[in-house]
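Lab notebook page, bench 4
Experiment: in silico fold of construct C2
Operator: M.H.
Input chain length: 214 residues
Purpose: comparison with the prior construct
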Amino acid sequence: LTQTAVNFLFKFLVIGSAGTGKSCLLHQFIENKFKQDSNHTIGVEFGSRVVNVGGKTVKLQIWDTAGQERFRSVTRSYYRGAAGALLVYDITSRETYNSLTNWLTDARTLASPNIIIILCGNKKDLDADREVTFLEASRFAQENELMFLETSALTGENVEEAFLKCARTILNKIESGELDPERMGSGIQYGDTSLRQLRQPRSAAAQTRPQCNC
Protein backbone atom coordinates (compact mmCIF):
# COMPACT_ATOMS: atom_id res chain seq x y z
CA LEU A 1 0.00 0.00 0.00
CA THR A 2 1.31 3.43 -0.87
CA GLN A 3 1.56 5.72 2.07
CA THR A 4 -0.79 8.68 1.95
CA ALA A 5 1.06 11.93 1.40
CA VAL A 6 1.07 14.08 4.50
CA ASN A 7 -0.40 17.52 3.81
CA PHE A 8 0.85 19.26 6.94
CA LEU A 9 3.14 18.77 9.92
CA PHE A 10 2.11 20.48 13.16
CA LYS A 11 4.41 20.84 16.14
CA PHE A 12 2.55 20.24 19.42
CA LEU A 13 3.50 20.57 23.08
CA VAL A 14 2.06 18.86 26.13
CA ILE A 15 2.65 21.15 29.10
CA GLY A 16 1.60 21.39 32.75
CA SER A 17 2.74 20.50 36.26
CA ALA A 18 4.39 17.19 37.19
CA GLY A 19 2.04 14.31 37.92
CA THR A 20 -0.88 15.55 35.83
CA GLY A 21 -0.62 12.62 33.41
CA LYS A 22 0.94 14.35 30.39
CA SER A 23 3.02 11.34 29.32
CA CYS A 24 -0.01 9.07 29.82
CA LEU A 25 -2.12 11.31 27.58
CA LEU A 26 0.52 11.20 24.86
CA HIS A 27 0.89 7.43 25.21
CA GLN A 28 -2.89 6.91 25.07
CA PHE A 29 -3.11 9.07 21.93
CA ILE A 30 -0.25 7.34 20.11
CA GLU A 31 -0.48 3.75 21.37
CA ASN A 32 -4.18 3.70 22.20
CA LYS A 33 -3.48 2.25 25.63
CA PHE A 34 -2.75 3.36 29.17
CA LYS A 35 0.86 3.64 30.22
CA GLN A 36 1.07 1.64 33.47
CA ASP A 37 4.59 2.38 34.68
CA SER A 38 4.81 6.10 34.15
CA ASN A 39 7.74 7.81 35.83
CA HIS A 40 8.25 11.56 35.76
CA THR A 41 9.53 12.69 32.38
CA ILE A 42 13.15 13.79 32.45
CA GLY A 43 13.52 16.71 30.08
CA VAL A 44 11.42 16.00 27.02
CA GLU A 45 9.88 12.96 25.30
CA PHE A 46 8.63 12.79 21.73
CA GLY A 47 5.84 11.04 19.87
CA SER A 48 4.12 11.43 16.52
CA ARG A 49 0.94 10.28 14.83
CA VAL A 50 -0.71 10.93 11.48
CA VAL A 51 -4.38 11.93 11.71
CA ASN A 52 -7.10 12.90 9.30
CA VAL A 53 -8.46 16.37 9.99
CA GLY A 54 -11.11 17.92 7.79
CA GLY A 55 -10.09 15.80 4.81
CA LYS A 56 -6.40 16.68 5.21
CA THR A 57 -3.66 14.34 6.40
CA VAL A 58 -1.78 15.93 9.27
CA LYS A 59 1.26 14.59 11.08
CA LEU A 60 1.33 15.72 14.70
CA GLN A 61 4.84 15.91 16.13
CA ILE A 62 4.29 16.04 19.87
CA TRP A 63 6.81 17.07 22.53
CA ASP A 64 5.91 15.94 26.02
CA THR A 65 7.67 18.25 28.47
CA ALA A 66 8.73 17.58 32.05
CA GLY A 67 6.56 19.30 34.63
CA GLN A 68 9.16 19.47 37.35
CA GLU A 69 10.62 22.89 38.07
CA ARG A 70 14.24 21.69 37.80
CA PHE A 71 13.69 20.83 34.10
CA ARG A 72 11.97 24.12 33.30
CA SER A 73 14.96 25.66 31.50
CA VAL A 74 15.40 22.54 29.34
CA THR A 75 11.75 22.29 28.38
CA ARG A 76 11.39 26.00 27.61
CA SER A 77 13.78 25.65 24.67
CA TYR A 78 11.27 23.27 23.02
CA TYR A 79 8.44 25.81 23.07
CA ARG A 80 9.75 27.76 20.10
CA GLY A 81 7.74 27.27 16.96
CA ALA A 82 4.91 25.20 18.43
CA ALA A 83 1.59 25.51 16.63
CA GLY A 84 -0.53 23.88 19.32
CA ALA A 85 -0.43 22.78 22.93
CA LEU A 86 -2.32 20.70 25.43
CA LEU A 87 -2.20 22.49 28.77
CA VAL A 88 -2.83 19.80 31.37
CA TYR A 89 -3.90 19.92 35.00
CA ASP A 90 -5.18 17.17 37.29
CA ILE A 91 -8.83 17.59 38.35
CA THR A 92 -7.96 16.00 41.72
CA SER A 93 -5.19 18.50 42.45
CA ARG A 94 -5.97 22.17 43.09
CA GLU A 95 -2.21 22.86 43.11
CA THR A 96 -1.79 21.81 39.45
CA TYR A 97 -4.78 23.97 38.52
CA ASN A 98 -3.37 27.00 40.36
CA SER A 99 -0.13 26.86 38.37
CA LEU A 100 -1.91 26.99 34.98
CA THR A 101 -1.39 30.74 34.60
CA ASN A 102 2.40 30.34 34.73
CA TRP A 103 2.36 27.58 32.11
CA LEU A 104 0.08 29.64 29.90
CA THR A 105 2.34 32.68 30.13
CA ASP A 106 5.35 30.52 29.19
CA ALA A 107 3.55 29.07 26.17
CA ARG A 108 2.34 32.40 24.83
CA THR A 109 5.65 34.15 25.46
CA LEU A 110 8.06 31.45 24.31
CA ALA A 111 6.11 29.58 21.62
CA SER A 112 3.98 32.15 19.85
CA PRO A 113 1.24 34.59 20.84
CA ASN A 114 -0.96 32.74 18.29
CA ILE A 115 -0.38 29.25 19.70
CA ILE A 116 -3.63 27.27 19.80
CA ILE A 117 -4.07 25.87 23.31
CA ILE A 118 -6.58 23.39 24.63
CA LEU A 119 -6.96 23.10 28.39
CA CYS A 120 -7.23 19.47 29.54
CA GLY A 121 -8.56 18.57 32.97
CA ASN A 122 -7.05 15.09 33.18
CA LYS A 123 -7.93 12.12 35.45
CA LYS A 124 -11.67 12.48 34.79
CA ASP A 125 -11.97 8.85 35.92
CA LEU A 126 -11.18 10.01 39.48
CA ASP A 127 -14.28 12.18 39.69
CA ALA A 128 -14.90 11.22 43.34
CA ASP A 129 -11.59 12.88 44.34
CA ARG A 130 -12.20 16.01 42.30
CA GLU A 131 -10.83 19.30 43.67
CA VAL A 132 -11.51 21.47 40.60
CA THR A 133 -15.03 21.81 39.20
CA PHE A 134 -15.79 21.64 35.49
CA LEU A 135 -17.48 25.06 35.68
CA GLU A 136 -14.50 26.75 37.33
CA ALA A 137 -12.04 25.39 34.76
CA SER A 138 -14.32 26.21 31.87
CA ARG A 139 -14.55 29.80 33.13
CA PHE A 140 -10.74 29.98 33.30
CA ALA A 141 -10.58 28.65 29.72
CA GLN A 142 -13.08 31.24 28.52
CA GLU A 143 -11.27 34.14 30.20
CA ASN A 144 -7.98 33.05 28.60
CA GLU A 145 -9.42 32.17 25.18
CA LEU A 146 -8.66 28.47 25.46
CA MET A 147 -10.64 25.47 24.35
CA PHE A 148 -11.45 23.09 27.18
CA LEU A 149 -12.08 19.37 27.68
CA GLU A 150 -11.88 16.98 30.61
CA THR A 151 -9.89 13.88 29.68
CA SER A 152 -8.94 10.51 31.09
CA ALA A 153 -5.64 9.00 30.01
CA LEU A 154 -6.77 5.83 31.79
CA THR A 155 -10.05 5.24 29.92
CA GLY A 156 -9.06 7.23 26.82
CA GLU A 157 -12.06 9.53 27.16
CA ASN A 158 -11.66 12.73 25.10
CA VAL A 159 -7.92 12.11 24.58
CA GLU A 160 -8.12 11.82 20.80
CA GLU A 161 -10.69 14.60 20.70
CA ALA A 162 -8.31 16.99 22.54
CA PHE A 163 -5.52 16.56 19.97
CA LEU A 164 -7.92 16.62 17.01
CA LYS A 165 -9.81 19.68 18.25
CA CYS A 166 -6.53 21.55 18.51
CA ALA A 167 -5.38 20.38 15.06
CA ARG A 168 -8.75 21.26 13.51
CA THR A 169 -8.54 24.82 14.86
CA ILE A 170 -5.03 25.25 13.44
CA LEU A 171 -6.18 23.94 10.05
CA ASN A 172 -9.17 26.32 10.03
CA LYS A 173 -6.84 29.23 10.74
CA ILE A 174 -4.53 28.18 7.88
CA GLU A 175 -7.49 27.98 5.51
CA SER A 176 -8.85 31.36 6.60
CA GLY A 177 -5.39 32.91 6.14
CA GLU A 178 -4.95 33.75 9.85
CA LEU A 179 -1.97 31.39 10.09
CA ASP A 180 0.75 31.28 7.47
CA PRO A 181 2.71 28.00 7.31
CA GLU A 182 5.45 29.82 5.40
CA ARG A 183 6.14 32.10 8.37
CA MET A 184 9.19 31.17 10.42
CA GLY A 185 8.33 29.69 13.78
CA SER A 186 4.68 28.99 12.93
CA GLY A 187 5.12 25.35 13.99
CA ILE A 188 3.50 24.30 10.71
CA GLN A 189 5.15 22.80 7.67
CA TYR A 190 3.82 21.59 4.36
CA GLY A 191 4.25 17.85 4.28
CA ASP A 192 4.11 17.40 0.56
CA THR A 193 5.96 19.47 -2.04
CA SER A 194 3.00 19.41 -4.43
CA LEU A 195 1.02 21.42 -1.88
CA ARG A 196 3.62 24.15 -1.82
CA GLN A 197 3.35 24.41 -5.57
CA LEU A 198 -0.41 24.80 -5.34
CA ARG A 199 0.12 28.14 -3.66
CA GLN A 200 2.72 29.45 -6.07
CA PRO A 201 1.12 29.40 -9.55
CA ARG A 202 -1.48 31.95 -8.50
CA SER A 203 1.10 34.62 -7.66
CA ALA A 204 3.32 33.56 -10.57
CA ALA A 205 0.38 33.86 -12.96
CA ALA A 206 -0.34 37.33 -11.65
CA GLN A 207 3.22 38.40 -12.39
CA THR A 208 3.29 37.04 -15.95
CA ARG A 209 -0.14 38.34 -16.95
CA PRO A 210 0.38 40.78 -19.84
CA GLN A 211 -0.18 44.40 -18.91
CA CYS A 212 -3.05 46.04 -20.70
CA ASN A 213 -2.07 49.41 -22.10
CA CYS A 214 -5.49 50.23 -23.48
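Observations: The CA atoms of residues 192 and 210 lie 31 Å apart. The chain has seven helices and seven strands.
Next step: discuss at group meeting.
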